[in-house]
Design a protein that fits this description.
Oligomer: single chain
Number of domains: 2
Radius of gyration: 27 Å
Structural class: alpha+beta
Length: 174
């Protein structure tokens, strides 16, 4: 991600206000000055009310720390901001799994097939929100769409050969 957007996010320790006080204070300000006492029909109504509140209240007041009006400060800083990367960032999770005795890999509560004959050495999973790639020693073995539920099993056609008896005598459908 640092290469994609040009910065490295740094996670703060949970429940340590001293490590993220300014952020926590902003959340508290929003909660106490915007959310309390309001009702929203839906997400669109919440967003409309928030836009109005930001424009008419939050961004035109004098900020306690900077002693400046946020809208004016932002206008000054915009010239120094870099543009965001227009390409969508796709997060990828990388992990290693062992192949099961029947030739599957387990990921997020589901099982995904590998082609027959794969050695039982660890397989690297590269997972995006929609697809997973299964690799062994840098070679792509299979790709699958991510299954939406848990407890499911994905078998790609061609990953399993019919038993020898079926190959010898043909399909039962004939």
């Amino acid at each position: 991600m640092p290469e994609h957007y040009g910065f490295q996010p740094k996670a703060c320790r949970p429940y340590r206000a001293k490590t993220k006080g300014k952020i926590e204070r902003s959340v508290s300000y929003l909660r106490h000055n915007f959310f309390y006492g309001r009702q929203f029909r839906d997400l669109e109504d919440l967003n409309n009310q928030l836009d109005s509140w930001l424009e008419q209240t939050a961004n035109i007041r004098i900020h306690v720390t900077t002693h400046e009006i946020p809208n004016i400060r932002l206008q000054r800083e915009v010239a120094h901001l870099k543009p965001l990367n227009v390409d969508l960032f796709v997060p990828v999770v990388n992990l290693s799994r062992r192949v099961t005795h029947d030739g599957y890999i387990s990921y997020n509560g589901n099982e995904y097939s590998l082609p027959e004959g794969i050695i039982r050495a660890p397989v690297e999973i590269r997972a995006s929100p929609t697809h997973i790639g299964l690799y062994q020693q840098g070679k792509l073995l299979a790709t699958h769409r991510v299954l939406p539920c848990r407890g499911e099993r994905m078998l790609t056609p061609g990953h399993r050969h019919p038993p020898r008896e079926m190959q010898k005598y043909g399909s039962l459908d004939n």
